[in-house]
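Running co-folding for 1-deoxy-D-xylulose-5-phosphate.
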Amino acid sequence: MNPHPTALSINLNKVALVRNTRHLGIPSVERAATLCLDAGAQGITVHPRPDARHIRADDVHALHALLARRPGVEFNIEGNPFHNLMDFVRALRPQQATFVPDSEGQFTSDHGWSFPADGPRLAPLIAECHALGVRVSLFMDPVPEAMAAVRECGADRIELYTETYARAFGTPAEAEVLQGFAQAARAAQAAGLGVNAGHDLNQQNLTAFLRALPGVLEVSIGHAFIADALELGYAAAVARYLACVQAAGH
Ligand SMILES: CC(=O)[C@@H](O)[C@H](O)COP(=O)(O)O
Ligand SMILES: NCC(=O)COP(=O)(O)O
């Protein structure tokens, strides 16, 4: 048994997306967080986009207050540090900030940072996060050659952008794509980086991913999880995803 099991962080963007279509406050993002954490999820992730299409600034503040009453739970705020992310980091000092190179209004995240090119502009923001006591993870494509430069600019972790794996899952390309992710994870770990992962992970593809990448510290899962929770309820959906993690032997 791995002594550092992979943490499950539930992304609540899509709860807010539904909530925002009426002025009734339901479904509640805070209630969703409470139910997921009560069911055993180890963290909550949000990605407050500049256009506030789903998670809004008020949600981030309310979740921060809620999670502050739950020691050991990780709050992970994602976003572009050159847009709105640093405002949240400075005000709330979450346990983790995940830097994502999205443009404003982007449909969804679809690529990681470019290294070595992005290193010099990211380094001062990473240093500022560290001064605030905030761990920094950089959203990255599975490029092994980039990992030494990522570490050099001060990042603590990477989050592997897993959409290409999710698309390849169940196709003849799966094994080769997974091998590429495993190589990138090993390069990151060898450089001294922790490895997180996320984007389009789901009940079907999660266990195989974690089996191929020992030592993944955290997965953040939103879209598929919320789809499952609509059928099963939050608690049962969390139980299913925790079982997927455990099935990987982590
Ligand atoms: C960084 C990442 O992969 C997720 O945060 C993803 O971008 C989810 O964002 P949306 O829920 O807006 O698609
Ligand atoms: N960091 C990825 C995340 O939080 C959730 O992505 P998705 O499961 O909504 O694709």
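Result summary
The radius of gyration is 17 Å.
The chain has a mean pLDDT of 97.
Job closed.
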